[in-house]
Amino acid sequence: MSRTTGIALDIWRAERASQDAIARRQRDRLGALIDYARSASPFYRRLYRDVPGTVTDLATDLGELPPVGKRELMDNFDDWVTDPHITLADLKADLLGDASRVGGFYRGQYLVMTTSGSTGEPTVLVHDRNSLQVANFLARIRERRTLLSAAEARAFLRRGLRAAAMIADGDHFAGVVLTETARRRSQRIARRVRVFSVLRPLPELVAELNDFQPTMLYGYPSAMVQLAAEERAGRLRIHPILAIASGEALPAEAAAGIEAALGCRVSLRYLASEVPALTSRCRQGLFHVNADWHIVEPVDAEYQPVPDGELSHTVLVTNLANRVQPLIRYNLGDRVQVVQGQCACGSPFPALRVEGRSGDVLTFAAAGGAVLDGAVLDGAVLEGAATAGEVVTVLPLALGTVIEETAGVRRFQAIRTGPRSLTVRLELWPAAGAADVRTAVGERLGAFFAAQGADGVDVQFADEPPRPDRSGKFREVWSA
Predict the structure, then answer these.
(1) Sign of torsion, CA 414 415 416 421?
(2) Residue 413's beta-bridge partner residues?
């Protein structure tokens, strides 16, 4: 039996295993990962130098290990990775600055992606082939019964697959990387799967989708909210069979609005670039942790465990599949709640409810138009907003990417304060000059708004740095 076949078979068997058997798999893989990280990663060797206990003890009591965060890991990137041939400088010079290499394997064996920075600082992530194989099999095997209904499967057989990825391009974001990796496999896939950048002006995006006529949509919920509004207005004319949303929160009302407008079911996923197959969704609508290959720890602000049924301050995750860049007790930044007891679906894996990353779809005055103060949230124009012809809607991730990708920006927040005004809070890297970065951000935002048809938005820079809201959650883009 090949190693690949063995991974797939074990994932299939784990579905039918007891919780004790799943816990044994988890402990064995965690012990091996800790041992490997200590020996091959200088960063983890230093971090765990004074941690007492054997590998077996630590695999049983994970709380003895210190949690890690994005800033700490990125500050020690070259010592974090376990392949000494990988350096951050080389990645930036050879790969990350070259859009033509998105989706290609680095050094023939690693897939490199960057986070969108939806919870703050972008992170450069390296996945080895084992990590990718595990993620692929988890997605295929665990969701084989829930991804498609029988009627949807028949519809795809009749109409074929044409998948539109509603994501941000221009960088090595996970959605783009995984889509382009699939497209590189064959011309047949490349014709049937395409990236439709949410950074494009909406009229161009609508025209391209009308021409492509996708049978499947996948990507950001806020983009689908916007498409639903275009469908209701009669400008978008597509008939997808299924829409798969991930990357942002999707309230039930917004999902219902998308389904009503597009005429298809919306299925939500809870994944992350760091852990691309963290959970699988069941028919009860809950997210089950793929606990044979991942560890999820809901914790409070002091990184102490919270009981089942209680909403966490954040969540620590451990990816047991990736050896080239170990993630052990990594602060993902989301708030989750472990469901008490076993799910009604019968799965042996723990179930989560997620309060994830979210953002308002913003409205600004169209160039030369007049608009009352208002915003679009969850697909509906709030009371006081102008008609669709007088406003331009802007996706939070698209606007955020423009700021985030400006040299010198470490973290940011953008708050719509009026139909023609935006306030930006910036946290800069130590070597960056505040005046130069503000000028660059202002120019990039001006060009972005002009391309969207919202010329004349006044961008103001606050003296205060980015900060969490009262609940402790860090939001990047919203309307005041």
Answers:
(1) negative
(2) 425
Taking the C-alpha atoms of residue 255 and residue 261, their distance in angstroms, rounded to an integer, is 10
Q: Which two tokens stand for residue 237?
A: 């004319």
Is-contact 356 341, C-beta < 8 A? no
β-pair partners for 287: 281, 352
Query: How many other β-carbons are positioned within 10 Å of the β-carbon of residue 286?
Result: 21
Tell me: the pLDDT tens digits for 343-352?
Answer: 999 999 999 9
- Nearest Cα neighbor of 477 from 372, 375, 361 is 361
Using one digit for the tens of pLDDT, what is the confidence trace for 300-332?
A: 989 999 999 998 988 999 999 999 999 999 999
| Count of CB atoms situated within 10 Å of the CB of 40 | 16
pLDDT of 204: 93
Tokens 């802007």, residue located: 394
CB contact set of 222 (below 8 Å; sequence gap of 6+): 248, 359, 361, 395, 396, 397
The answer to whether residues 425 and 464 touch, using CB atoms and an 8 Å cutoff, is: yes
Read off the DSSP letter of residue 1.
-
- Token pair of 210, please? 């009308």
Residue 73's alpha-carbon distances to 81, 315, 329, 330, in angstroms, are 10, 17, 12, 9
SS3 196: strand
Q: Are 413 and 396 in contact (CB under 8 A)?
A: no
Query: Measured over all CA atoms, what is the biggest interatomic distance in the chain, rounded to whole angstroms?
Result: 68
pTM of the model as a whole = 0.77
Predicted confidence band of residue 372 (pLDDT cuts 50, 70, 90) = very low
pLDDT tens for each residue of 399-446: 988 998 899 998 899 999 999 999 999 999 888 999 999 999 999 999
The residue assigned the tokens 């993630």 is 327
Structure confidence at residue 209 as a pLDDT band (50, 70, 90) = very high
The CA distance from 33 to 321, in Å, is 8
DSSP conformation letters of 74-132: HHTHHHHSS-TT--HHHHIIIIIT-GGGTTSPBTTTBEEEE---TTSS--EEEE-HHHH
Residue 410: which residues within 8 A CB-CB, separation 6 or more? 121, 427, 428, 429, 432
Q: What are phi and psi of 43, to 5 degrees?
A: -65, -50
Antiparallel, parallel or unpaired: β 294-299 and 362-365: unpaired
3-state helix/strand/coil string of 207-253 = HHHHHHCCCEEEECHHHHHHHHHHHHCCCCCCCCCEEEECCCCCCHH
pLDDT (tens digit per residue) in 377-399: 333 333 323 334 578 888 787 89
Looking at the DSSP assignment, which residues form a beta bridge with residue 425?
413
